Amino acid sequence: MTHEHDDLQLLFDYLVKEYMTQGASITEAQDEAEKIIYENQSNLFGPKGLAYQLGEINFEFFCIYFLQDTFVPKENNAARELSESHYKLWNTLSDMFIEDEFDKLTVIAPRGFAKTTVCDFAL
Known about the structure:
This protein has 123 residues and is an all-alpha fold. The chain has seven helices and no strands. It is globular.
């Protein structure tokens, strides 16, 4: 399996999630994701491409795709598997910075939780 295939699968999966958060059924979301990938096949991962556009509205996708050397464990990096709490924190940060739902946040987590990496670096 190539990295390009992994990236395409990641893009598809997050597009499906995005459509489902907007109320689509799993089948509708998959159909829409396939359609938008097909329509944008000439620029999926390039400048201002589909991945860029999704990253603008989905903070979790932004971190997993654009910062994958930090957040996705691979043979050639020291990344660790993220916990459910890390994803919840990204959702909270998304609510704050993308959805503009609130202005201040205090994050309290145990030493070694990767607060600086998951929050400050990602932002």
